[in-house]
Write a structure and sequence with these properties.
The protein is mainly alpha-helical. The chain has a single domain, classed as NCX, central ion-binding region (A middle domain of Talin 1, Up-down Bundle), CATH 1.20.1420.30. The chain is about 80% helix and about 0% strand. It has helices at about 1-10, 10-25, 25-55, 60-80, 85-110, 120-145, 155-190, 200-220, 225-230, 235-245, 250-260, 265-290, 300-320, 325-345; strands at about 115-120, 325. Strands 1-2 form a two-stranded antiparallel ribbon. Helix 5 packs parallel to helix 13 (about 300-320) and helix 11 packs antiparallel against helix 12 (about 265-290). The chain is globular. The chain starts with a helix and ends with a helix.
Length: about 350
């Protein structure tokens, strides 16, 4: 029954698009409908990823989910830059890193097969190291932005080489990691089973991601009106609401896959998505913003830097022995709740 309901609710995506461009519904209505429409799309991306993972193994499957799932995040950011919302962009990127590490991973551990389940410690800690490295690099344009105008051109110029280093570092480490995952999958001798073929899974991923991008653009367009109506700051709305909705593919996919017992794939989705946002998406957005204009400085606030760094360290501590425990999942979900309260109290810049 649940699966039939999810398949049927995919119609919400075209309904959202019609409400925006044909009916011209109000922004608050559009935000609410778009947020709900992303849920079945997230499930579909998770479903396709699990079938792709049957052919590629959990490591590459997690990378595929992160890549397709983070495409809307990149599109959301570029739309927000074009609309003159740099603080929203930085907050949503930071919120995406934190929510993937604490909320998504925590839920996956809680819903997984139980205590003592082995996960890929080497892969996960390596990607957490990437998040910490990115956080340290962010300090280069961020610290000068803590005084004076955080949008000044000199900070955008200082951001460009940082963004380039992020992209190169991500490409180098990810290429090496994917080669390892491919070798491990081949050595395991695992068969693909009777699920979707790999081309079918990739095609569904592509279509679902394209639909998610359209719905995500509508979400960004209506964000300001929703924040005003709800009495929330734009920072909180971007760091929590937009970050969660924009990464619905990872959130929903990891939860569904963990509940089905495939915890290795679920944890790879959560942590690899966080690393991809911190390095690839953030670096790409910073460089592409020079074409969209105005160029985006990565002048994160102290609370944003602290949230990313502390989240990566906390998760590294939890996963240090390569064992999955439900209590650890509850612990890091609790940390996310603390972060959300901090974001609420921080207000706008």
């Amino acid at each position: 029954m649940g699966r039939k309901l999810l398949w049927a609710s995919l119609v919400l995506a075209p309904v959202t698009i019609l409400l925006r461009y044909t009916v011209h519904a109000g922004d608050v209505t559009l935000f609410a409908v778009a947020a709900v429409a992303l849920v079945p799309l997230a499930w579909l991306i998770g479903e396709a990823t699990e079938h792709a993972g049957d052919h590629t193994g959990p490591g590459i499957g997690g990378f595929l989910n992160a890549s397709f799932g983070n495409a809307p995040e990149l599109i959301i950011a570029l739309f927000a830059i074009a609309q003159g919302l740099p603080n929203v962009v930085r907050a949503s990127l930071m919120g995406s890193v934190v929510s993937n590490l604490l909320l998504v991973l925590g839920i996956a551990l809680v819903l997984g097969p139980g205590d003592g389940h082995r996960i890929d410690r080497r892969s996960l800690l390596g990607q957490l190291g990437l998040v910490l490295a990115a956080t340290l690099l962010f300090l280069v344009p961020a610290v000068p932005g803590w005084s004076g105008n955080p949008e000044r051109h000199s900070l955008a110029v200082a951001t460009a080489p940082v963004a380039a280093v992020l992209l190169v570092l991500y490409a180098a480490v990810t290429t090496r990691g994917l080669q390892r995952h491919k070798r491990l999958h081949e050595e395991s001798g695992a068969s693909a089973g009777e699920g979707w073929t790999l081309p079918t899974a990739l095609a569904v991923l592509a279509v679902a991601t394209a639909a998610t991008a359209f719905v995500s653009e509508i979400l960004v367009h209506s964000l300001h009106a929703f924040a005003d109506a709800a009495g929330l700051s734009e920072f909180f709305t971007a760091a929590v609401v937009v970050a969660i909705v924009g990464n619905a593919a990872e959130h929903g996919g990891a939860a569904v896959i963990a509940h089905r017992g495939n915890l290795r794939l679920a944890t790879e989705i959560a942590v690899s998505s966080s690393a991809q946002v911190a390095l690839f998406v953030t670096g790409a957005v910073a460089l592409l913003s020079w074409a969209v204009k105005p160029a985006l400085p990565l002048s994160f606030r102290p609370i944003e830097i602290a949230a990313m760094g502390a989240s990566a360290l906390a998760v590294a501590f939890v996963l240090r022995d390569g064992q999955a425990r439900r209590r650890d999942g509850c612990f890091i979900v609790g940390l996310y709740a603390v972060a959300v309260v901090g974001f609420l109290l921080a207000g706008d810049r």
